[in-house]
From TrEMBL:
Organism, scientific name: Planococcus lenghuensis
Name by which UniProt lists this protein: Multidrug resistance efflux transporter family protein
Pfam families for this protein: EmrE (PF13536)
Domain of life: Bacteria
InterPro entries from the UniProt entry: EmrE
Length: 327
């Protein structure tokens, strides 16, 4: 029960991202500063965590070996992930983005053939291209159906262009996030833990965030004090606290696939936490019955997907948990 409660707490802090991004947009803050400042603010926290674990020097040695790979996949995994999510916040409420973001499970499954995996055969271990997990993909389609139901309410009130600006960036982010993280895991080859990898990717993505911040300074000026404070809270609560809690929960049940599935499924609570936060803090309109149906379908799909992915017939989804780092 304790790991599940910790997983739910992690989902709560992850939901802070969606609520505060929506809050900053409503207050007139630019998505440029919401995105760039979050990762800039994360660096000192992550450096402290990795240094306390006495893992900072090994990380820096690894980064010096392949700086180009770190910068490329740091940009893809973090830059092309978070900047589009912040951009989408200008066109969709946070709870809707939180629900739509669950499509990353579908995107991640479709990326499987791009990576090599080790399979046990009669002749011994064999390296081969990954296969799309059919059972998991079927469960993912349930999540997709829920997302469509949630989006349907807004499709009737928004122009086609406005709708695309709220959906396409999330779709881009859903592919960029697992792609960047998995490619980085291939580069590291198990030599670094998740905290080191997140810090390394954050540092490697800083050139992009500094360029984005410079563009923001030249076009819209400096962010307000309120936006800087809220972005700091996102960096602290979502980028650090939520990640640490989620790793803690998955580590507690690492040897039990059924319990791991339950912990992973707690992340579907992000949608409800984001919705509750926006209702209480931002006074947004209540979702329609159709949207509520979509929310429940997404949560159901997350639970079923996690159970199927962690059944004895599937490869344990430890990497799935690690891939959520830095969200």
């Amino acid at each position: 029960m304790k790991p599940i409660l910790i997983g739910i707490c992690a989902a709560f802090f992850f939901a802070v991202t969606f609520v505060l991004n929506a809050s900053m947009e409503l207050a007139g803050g630019s998505w440029i500063w919401s995105a760039s400042l979050r990762y800039i603010f994360m660096v000192p926290f992550l450096v402290l965590i990795v240094a306390l674990r006495k893992n900072l020097k090994p990380l820096l040695r690894e980064m010096r070996k392949q700086p180009g790979q770190w910068m490329l996949w740091g940009f893809v995994g973090f830059g092309l992930f978070y900047a589009p999510l912040c951009f989408a916040a200008a066109y969709s409420p946070g709870w809707l983005i939180a629900g739509s973001w669950q499509i990353t499970i579908v995107s991640g499954a479709l990326l499987a053939p791009l990576f090599l995996e080790t399979r046990l055969t009669a002749a011994g271990p064999l390296r081969a291209r990954g296969e799309i997990p059919v059972k998991g993909l079927v469960m993912s389609l349930i999540i997709l159906a829920g997302i469509i139901l949630m989006q349907a309410e807004y499709a009737t009130h928004l122009s086609f262009d406005h709708m695309l600006l709220g959906v396409v960036p999330v779709l881009l982010a859903s592919f960029a996030y697992p792609l960047g993280n998995r490619k980085m895991m291939d580069v590291c080859k198990g030599r670094l833990d998740a905290y080191q990898r997140v810090l390394g990717m954050t540092i490697a993505s800083l050139p992009f965030w500094f360029l984005l911040a410079a563009y923001g300074f030249m076009t819209i000026g400096m962010p307000s004090g309120g936006q800087m404070f809220q972005t700091f809270l996102v960096a602290l609560f979502s980028g650090v606290v939520a990640t640490v809690l989620f790793f803690m929960a998955t580590d507690m049940v690492r040897g039990n696939m059924q319990k791991l599935a339950a912990v992973e499924a707690t992340q579907s609570m992000e949608v409800l936490f984001a919705l509750a936060g926006e209702l209480l803090l931002l006074s947004i309109p209540y979702p329609s019955p159709l949207a509520w149906t979509g929310i429940l379908v997404v949560i159901l799909g997350m639970v079923l997907h996690s159970l199927v992915s962690n059944s004895k017939s599937e490869i344990p989804a430890i990497n799935g948990a690690v891939d959520m780092a830095g969200k």
